[in-house]
Design brief:
Blueprint: E1 27-28, H1 34-43, H2 48-64, H3 78-87, E2 88-89, E3 94-100, E4 106-112, E5 116-124, E6 129-132, E7 136-137, E8 155-156, H4 159-173, E9 191-194, H5 204-215, E10 227-231, H6 238-245, E11 248-252, H7 258-264, H8 273-287, E12 292-298, H9 306-315, E13 321-327, H10 341-353, H11 386-394
Parallel strand pairs: 1-2, 6-9, 9-10, 10-11, 11-12, 12-13
Antiparallel strand pairs: 3-4, 4-5, 5-6, 7-8
Helix pairs in contact: 1-2, 4-5, 6-8, 9-10
This protein binds S-adenosyl-L-homocysteine (SAH) and iron/sulfur cluster.
The site of iron/sulfur cluster has 11 residues, from loops.
C-alpha cells in the first residue's frame, strides 16, 4: 500500500506496483532515487565503500547518456556489469502508438505493467518544448469538464513510470547527448508539466521521487523552475509540495464561487476556495518560487462572466500569480461548450487591467485529442456511475 494522506480516504485502496518485476525477478533501476539505487547496489553485493561511486557512474549512464544496456557502461569492470545484468533491469514503459498533430504536438500512448495505458504529450514551441506527463492511470476525482475524470482510477504510476515518460520522449526526439559533441543548450524537452492524466498530489511519494531524478544535475538535469505540478487543490499536500519537491505550482481554480467550483471541481466540497487560497498564500515563500499559475477553464455561460473575472482578481489579491485561461477542449459527450473568443478576451482584459498576466492557452494537438483534459486511455473507457461519483465526492 502507498502511504496515502489520512485526509484523503478515497485513495486508500491504491496499490503501487512493487519495484520487483515478475520476469526473472530482476529489479528495475529506473525511478530509484540515488539513495535507493545505492541500497540496491549494496544489496546485490557492491562493497559499501564503492557504493557511492558506482551509484554515480550508473546514474550518469542511465540519465545523462540514456544507456539501456549494462554492457555499454564501459567504465565498469566486465564482471561487475554482468552482476548488474543478473540482478537488475533498465525498464521503461512501452510506446504503443505515437500520433503527430498538424501543429507538431506529439501524443504517445504508453503501456505499463499490468497492461494499463497512459498518455504523454510533447508540445514544441518556438523557444521551448514542454512535456506533459501523467501521474496516474485515470483519476479518482471527477471534475465534470475533464475527460480523464470520466475514467476510473486504475492505479498510481510508479516513480519509474513517471521518469520513463521523460526518457521515452528524449528517445523519440533523439535528444540524448552524443559522446564528444558540444553541449547543446537548446533542449527539446526543456520543461515538464504534471498536467496529464491523474492528480499528482494523490501519488505524492512517487511524483516526488520521480521529480528528484528528473532534476538531478548529473542526469536529466531539468531545473525545478522548469517543472510545473498542477493540482485540483489537495490542500494538505500543498506545503509538502513546496518543501519536498520545490517545483512551480499550478492550481486548477476554474470558478469564483464555492457553488460553481463544487460542480466543476468536486474536491472543492472537501477543501473550499478559502481553504485552498490559504494554502496557496504560503507556497511562494515555502518553495522560493515567484508565482503560482491559476488555471481557469473557460466554459460558456458557466464561469466566464465579467463578474467572475472581477471576483477572481479580488480572491487572489496578495498572491503572486499568473492566470492561465484555458479555452475548454471538447471531448465526445462533454457537458459544456467553449466560451466564445470575444468572451475569453473580455475576461482576459479585466484580469490584465488588474495587473495580472493573463495568457490564453492556445489549444494544441486538438486533432489528435491531445489538448488539456482530453486524455483518456481508449482501452479503459469504463465510465463511473452517478452513484460512484457521488460517493467519491462525499468521501
Ligand atoms: N489533475 C491535475 C492535473 C491534470 S489536468 C489538475 O486537475 O490540476 C491539467 C489542466 O487541464 C487542469 O487545469 C484541468 O482542470 C484542465 N482541464 C481538464 N479538462 C479540460 C478540458 N476539457 N479543457 C480544458 N482544460 C481542461
Ligand atoms: Fe482528475 Fe485533474 Fe481531470 Fe480533475 S481535472 S478529473 S483532478 S485529471
Amino acid at each position: 500500500m502507498t502511504a496515502q494522506p489520512q485526509t484523503a480516504p478515497i485513495t486508500q485502496d491504491l496499490v503501487t506496483i512493487p519495484r520487483k518485476l515478475p520476469e526473472g525477478g530482476r529489479v528495475n533501476l529506473i525511478g530509484m532515487t540515488r539513495a535507493q539505487l545505492r541500497e540496491a547496489l549494496i544489496g546485490a553485493g557492491t562493497p559499501e565503500r564503492q557504493a557511492k561511486m558506482r551509484t554515480g557512474q550508473i546514474w550518469q549512464w542511465l540519465y545523462h547518456w540514456g544507456v539501456r544496456d549494462f554492457a555499454q557502461m564501459t567504465n565498469l569492470a566486465k564482471d561487475y556489469r554482468a552482476m548488474l545484468a543478473e540482478h537488475f533491469e533498465i525498464a521503461l514503459p512501452e510506446i504503443v502508438t505515437k500520433q503527430v498533430s498538424a501543429d507538431g504536438t506529439r501524443k504517445y500512448l504508453l503501456r505499463i505493467a499490468g497492461g494499463h495505458e497512459v498518455e504523454t504529450v510533447y508540445i514544441p514551441e518556438e523557444n521551448r518544448g514542454t512535456l506533459c506527463i501523467s501521474s496516474q492511470v485515470g483519476c479518482t476525482l471527477t471534475c465534470s469538464f475533464c475527460h480523464t475524470g470520466t475514467q476510473k482510477l486504475v492505479r498510481n504510476l510508479t516513480a519509474g513510470e513517471i521518469v520513463g515518460q521523460v526518457m521515452l520522449a528524449r528517445d523519440d526526439l533523439g535528444e540524448w547527448p552524443q559522446p564528444g559533441a558540444p553541449k547543446d543548450e537548446t533542449r527539446l524537452v526543456s520543461n515538464v508539466v504534471l498536467m496529464g492524466m491523474g492528480e499528482p498530489l494523490y501519488n505524492f511519494e512517487n511524483v516526488r521521487d520521480a521529480m528528484a531524478v528528473v532534476m538531478d544535475g548529473e542526469g536529466l538535469s531539468l531545473s525545478r523552475r522548469r517543472i510545473t505540478l498542477s493540482t485540483s487543490g489537495i490542500v494538505p499536500e500543498i506545503a509538502r509540495t513546496a518543501e519536498e519537491i520545490g517545483c512551480l505550482l499550478a492550481v486548477s481554480f476554474h470558478a469564483t464561487t464555492d457553488e460553481v467550483r463544487d460542480r466543476l471541481v468536486p474536491i472543492n466540497k472537501k477543501w473550499n476556495i478559502a481553504a485552498l487560497l490559504d494554502a496557496l498564500r504560503d507556497y511562494p515563500r515555502l518553495s522560493n518560487s515567484e508565482r503560482i499559475t491559476f488555471e481557469y477553464v473557460m466554459l460558456d455561460g458557466v464561469n466566464d462572466s465579467d463578474e467572475d473575472a472581477r471576483r477572481l482578481v479580488k480572491l487572489i489579491r496578495g498572491i503572486p500569480a499568473k492566470i492561465n485561461l484555458i479555452p475548454f477542449n471538447e471531448w465526445p459527450g462533454a457537458p459544456y461548450k467553449r466560451s466564445s473568443w470575444e468572451r475569453i478576451e473580455a475576461f482576459a482584459d479585466i484580469i490584465y487591467k488588474a495587473g495580472y498576466a493573463s495568457p490564453i492557452r492556445t489549444p494544441r494537438g486538438e486533432d489528435i485529442m491531445a489538448a488539456c483534459g482530453q486524455l483518456k486511455s481508449a482501452t479503459e473507457r469504463g465510465r463511473k456511475s452517478r452513484a460512484e461519483i457521488a460517493a467519491e465526492v462525499a468521501g
